């Protein structure tokens, strides 16, 4: 990743040296404190206090990944006065992903939506939101992901839609930008146009993170791309734009979305926000790890039990890219384990899991 950044940007010697130092520290050294005075310095100081001085190799995977991305941003000059201040170092990669052939195809495929029955249209937008999570640049950089799909290991679009009742607030905790965020906006549009949501809160990362994670400016970039596209994608983009203007969609970026901890440790203001939602939708692998706890749980641990701390109904839509998984049936686990594929980490399987089902689905 550091090599990709060095070749993507004409960084001067200071930034190049800071990135090389991060590479040395994170691969063989100890955790060093933050040296910047960015607005999130104070909150991070609390998250790293008991880790400073420890070898990186002894920190937890989730903690190390998050801190790596925070240090990387600082190393590129993101928080410092100067030419790189506020420059998203991953922007060229995200832009390439937004303008690639696979995203074009996904957007073109939306032209089929108006010809589908309401039920098929519901199913199609959920499938697109789930599998949109396959496109993830951090994962592509660290694996030989093929893009092949093998199906859902749990849940169904019907299970997802049965969570919704009277119109209410729906919160969507987004993951990657580009094609995945475009599919998420299609889902948001469906939630609003079918009256399942009276308004939607879209949660994105406050800063560039995990290469392709969506930030507020990515929301605008993807929206501009949609509105500049012909056909259904363009129509959806214009409706989303109007919903933003009307306050039916709000975009938020709480600092905790870049925190190195599980959602069970979320701060009170974020908990209160989720408690006010009729349904909260969590997208992607990292959000899933943070939602159920980034641990080697038995795969058959009930999903409801893993998320029992969460203050409301929720759905997780995720492609499996890491070992963490719960809520599977024993039969599913044994048949997947019998196969050759590393099904938990290959990015070829996905899931839809829900908790807090309404008693009489509409
Ligand atoms: O974008 P997503 O779906 O959250 O996936 C990110 C995943 O990619 C990795 O960074 C690399 O595999 C995982 O650690 C992480 O869970």
UniProtKB/TrEMBL annotation:
One of its GO terms (biological process) is methylation. It comes from the Bacteria. Keywords: Hydrolase, Manganese, Metal-binding, Methyltransferase, Transferase. GO terms for molecular function: metal ion binding; methyltransferase activity; phosphatase activity. Residues 335-362 are annotated as: Disordered. The keyword ATP-binding does not apply. InterPro entries: ARMT-1-like_metal-bd_sf (IPR036075), ARMT1 (IPR039763), ARMT1-like_metal-bd (IPR002791). SUPFAM superfamilies: AF1104-like (SSF111321). It catalyses: beta-D-fructose 6-phosphate = dihydroxyacetone + D-glyceraldehyde 3-phosphate; beta-D-fructose 1-phosphate + H2O = D-fructose + phosphate. Residues 16-333 form the Damage-control phosphatase ARMT1-like metal-binding domain. Gene3D superfamilies: Uncharacterised protein PF01937, DUF89, domain 3. Residues 351-362 have a biased composition (Polar residues). Its cofactor is Mn(2+). Pfam families: ARMT1-like_dom (PF01937). Belongs to the damage-control phosphatase family. Sugar phosphate phosphatase III subfamily. This is Protein-glutamate O-methyltransferase family protein.
């Amino acid at each position: 990743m550091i090599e990709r950044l060095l070749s993507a940007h004409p960084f001067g010697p200071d930034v190049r040296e800071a990135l090389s130092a991060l590479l040395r520290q994170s691969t063989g050294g100890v955790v060093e404190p933050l040296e910047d005075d960015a607005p999130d310095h104070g909150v991070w100081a609390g998250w790293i206090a008991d880790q400073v001085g420890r070898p990186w190799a002894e920190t937890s995977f989730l903690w190390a990944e998050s801190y790596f991305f925070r240090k990387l941003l600082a190393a590129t000059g993101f928080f410092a006065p100067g030419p790189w201040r506020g420059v998203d170092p991953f922007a060229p990669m995200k832009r390439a992903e937004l303008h690639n052939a696979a995203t074009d195809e996904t957007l073109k495929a939306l032209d089929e939506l108006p010809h589908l029955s309401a039920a098929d249209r519901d199913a199609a937008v959920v499938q697109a939101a789930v599998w949109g999570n396959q496109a993830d640049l951090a994962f592509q950089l660290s694996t030989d992901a093929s893009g092949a799909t093998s199906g859902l290991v749990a849940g169904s679009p019907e299970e997802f839609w049965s969570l919704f009742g009277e119109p209410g607030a729906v919160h969507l905790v987004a993951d990657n930008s580009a094609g995945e965020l475009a599919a998420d906006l299609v889902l948001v549009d469906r939630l609003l146009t079918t009256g399942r949501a009276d308004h939607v809160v879209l949660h994105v990362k406050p800063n560039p993170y995990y290469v392709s994670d969506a930030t507020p400016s990515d929301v605008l970039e993807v929206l501009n791309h949609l509105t500049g596209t012909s056909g259904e994608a363009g129509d959806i983009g214009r409706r989303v734009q109007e919903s933003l203007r009307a306050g039916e969609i709000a975009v938020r970026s709480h600092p905790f979305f870049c925190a190195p901890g599980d959602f069970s440790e979320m701060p009170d203001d974020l908990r209160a926000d989720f408690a006010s939602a009729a349904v909260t939708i969590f997208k992607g692998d990292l959000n899933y790890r943070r939602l159920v706890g980034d641990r080697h749980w038995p795969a058959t641990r009930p999903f409801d039990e893993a998320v029992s701390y969460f203050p409301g109904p929720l759905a997780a839509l995720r492609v499996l890219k890491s070992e963490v998984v719960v809520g599977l049936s024993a039969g599913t686990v044994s048949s997947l384990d019998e196969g050759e594929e590393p099904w938990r980490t290959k990015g070829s399987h996905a899931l839809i899991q829900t908790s807090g089902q309404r008693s009489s689905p509409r």
